[in-house]
Amino acid sequence: MADTAAEFLSLIGLQELEGCLFAERLAVVAVGASPRDKEEGQWWMAAQWAPYQREDEPVQSCILVQTRFRGKKDGVPASSTLKAYVTWQLETLEQEEQESLELTPHPTEKMTHIVSHDHGMTVWKTLQEGEAEPQCQSFSYSRARLQGVLLEGASLLLLRVLARRQTMPPDLVFPAIGTEGDLCTSSYRAVHTSTGASTVWHSSFLPNGRLAQLMQIGSPVLMLLQDESILSKSGKFKPRLPFPKDHLDWEEDIELFSCFLDRKDELQLSHAAYLQQHPEVRALLSDFLQALLLQQPHDPISFAAEFFAHQLPIGTPFASTGAAIPLPNSSPGHPPANGK
Q1: Stretch 245-260: mean pLDDT, rounded?
Q2: Which helix (H) or strand (E) covers residue 139, if one does?
Q3: With contact defined as beta carbons under 8 Å apart, do 72 and 221 qualify?
Q4: How many whole angstroms separate alpha carbon 159 and alpha carbon 67?
Q5: How many Cβ atoms sit within 10 Å of the Cβ of residue 95?
Q6: Tens digits of residue pLDDT in 147-163
Q7: For residue 70, what is the enclosing H or E element?
Q8: Half-sphere exposure (CA, 13 Å, Cβ side) for 333?
């Protein structure tokens, strides 16, 4: 697979890539809604020549690929960016992805930074949740394992090339690095992880290589071209879902129902084992419910946050085991619901 992928990339000409260097913008709309009335955000991509230099190395000319997304994911305001420096052979020199979810009161930010070097590639991942300490990890892959590898920025460029060719070679599969930083494969256009899960995208292009529609299968939103000046030159594009929505009665499907039962048993055993190993969990929940029912606050979520923030360190006996833990006081503006 790696040899075939590397050979395919080596046959892409510089002139082909020149025709793929432009900027475009798509509107983010809800699936099934009227696209003209329900714009919920924007997706933007640009590719252009740019200088790239590492410390103590000469400047080299490469292609800078950038994307930006702003919209909502499952009703939560979200944004993401991608910045990749790619050679004209579609080899990634450096790539950085950032994703933010504006969850209240604990916003989440993820960053993945990948750098290519003589020995292969190094991946740094950072997860920041609210005011907690960032969770950082890094790992590397040897160059031997990365032959023909295609990262996200280079993949977006290749899609433009294939769209302008108006052809899709059969069984086109590339080694890739997934969103969690693990090695996986990418077939156009599904990303298959080592866990067996697949992320499938459906892309529709105009003959000039511009995206007309982009969506992740299973996502409640899609990205749609609405620029009339572009559409008028290429003909009207009618948005459509990649697959019709069919009702699925999984309880009547023997295979799906069997998988459900197996997974249910697996989770029940796992949960029971965890609670057996950590008896303090039951004591903690018992303390919380007792405090909640005694005070009956109007804002149970804020009450819970304050309650767990004041818990004693791990190893200290809980209130239900004989130690008294002070209960959070209801704020002056939020007396107990029972009025006591």
Answers
A1: 73
A2: strand 135-142
A3: yes
A4: 14
A5: 23
A6: 888 899 998 999 899 88
A7: strand 60-73
A8: 2
